[in-house]
Each structure stands twice: as structure tokens, then as C-alpha cells.
Write a structure and sequence with these properties.
This protein is of the alpha+beta class. The chain has 6 helices and 10 strands; from the N terminus they run ααββββαββαββαββα. The strands form 3 sheets. Strands 3-2-5-10 form a 4-stranded antiparallel β-sheet. The protein is globular. It starts with 6 loop residues before the first helix and ends with a helix.
Length: 196
């Protein structure tokens, strides 16, 4: 996103994500008009993360903007329900799930020839990181710094996530920042209000 989102726009995105999940659990798709905010209709890349008591229940997203921001959130919210790494989210799970929407900045190439060079260029707690080699890529959102607080841990864990040993030839790195918006389960609107 080129223009920072307001707290109200962020809340609109988390409400949309919650409404999309509630609609899917009720057996239909979310319907409705595009939001009034021009920023939410601009192309954007997002991740939607679902957690239960701090444990991951789904995280799916886009790294490059290919659709309007609000549509990307709806798409990723529905896909986060069936993250292939985890059991699908059910109607029984939903009342206890917190959700967050991460809106990504443009990815900036990070020139580096090895792991140590990359580690020296990272900003802990700020940078999301994407590693790419051939058709394979892996990413960590900035929120993952909570789990891996040092650059060494962060890079090592992301290399392992991507299935790479050491620093393979042809590996490239990019970084991005995110604007984070959260909606706790206790603060969600009742499902009736979220249905379209």
C-alpha cells in the first residue's frame, strides 16, 4: 500500500475478514458492495492470520498486489480457514478465534551473497522476509519476530521453512513491512450482523 491506512480502514478490513469466514461457515459467500474508502479498493497484498489462544489456526496471504485490497482480504480469510498445514476451521472453532490482517508494503530487494550478509541488513521486529529460489519461496511476516527474536534465528527458521540447507546458490531475498490490524474473538460482531 502506498497510502497508510487509517484505524477505521483497518477495522473495516478485519470486519470483512470475519464476515467472509462467518458466511463460509454458514454455507454461502460474502456478498456486498465495494467499500467507500478508495484506499481499500486499490490493489493490495495481505495476509490473514487466525489464532486460538496464541496458537496458529491458519495463515494465508498474497505477496504481490493482484486484486483490490478488500477482495484480497476476503479471499485470504476464506483460504486461511483451510490452511493445508492445519485442521480446517469449523463452526465450533470460530467463536474462539482471533484474527489479524497484515497489509504488505512493496517488496524491496535485499542484495546479499550469503546468510551473514542478509542477517546484517534485517531490522528485527520491522521486516518481513521472503526468500526465493527457482519456483520455491518462503516468507515470514514481521509478527514472526515474536517467535524468533534475533536475525540469526529468524533467517535460520525461514531457510528451514523453505527446505533449504545453508545458503544455496541462486537464493534471493526481499523484505517488506506490514500494517497490522487485529480483531479479537470477544470484539467481533454477532454473525447475524456479518451476513450479507
Amino acid at each position: 500500500m502506498a497510502v497508510p491506512l487509517t484505524p477505521e480502514e483497518g477495522a473495516a478490513l478485519t470486519d470483512l475478514a470475519a464476515a467472509a469466514i462467518a458466511a463460509r461457515l454458514a454455507g454461502h459467500q460474502l456478498a456486498g458492495a465495494a467499500p467507500e474508502s478508495p484506499a481499500l479498493r486499490e490493489p493490495g497484498a495481505t495476509f490473514v492470520t487466525l489464532t486460538a489462544a496464541g496458537h496458529l489456526r491458519g495463515c494465508v496471504g498474497s505477496l504481490t498486489p493482484v486484486r483490490p485490497l478488500y477482495q484480497d482480504v476476503i479471499r485470504n480469510a476464506v483460504h486461511a480457514m483451510t490452511d493445508p498445514r492445519l485442521p480446517p476451521v469449523t463452526a465450533e472453532d470460530w467463536p474462539a478465534l482471533d484474527l489479524s490482517v497484515s497489509v504488505l508494503s512493496t517488496i524491496e530487494n535485499v542484495p546479499c551473497t550469503d546468510r551473514e550478509a542478509l542477517i546484517g541488513k534485517l531490522r528485527p521486529g520491522v521486516d518481513g522476509l521472503i526468500l526465493t529460489r527457482g519456483g520455491r519461496r518462503a516468507t515470514f511476516l514481521p509478527a514472526v519476530w515474536d517467535r524468533y527474536p534475533t536475525p540469526e534465528q529468524f533467517v535460520t527458521a525461514l531457510l528451514a521453512k523453505g527446505g533449504w540447507q545453508g545458503w544455496p546458490a541462486g537464493l534471493s531475498a526481499g523484505r517488506y513491512t506490514t500494517a497490522e490490524f487485529h480483531l479479537l474473538a470477544r470484539d467481533r460482531k454477532p454473525p447475524e450482523d456479518a451476513r450479507a
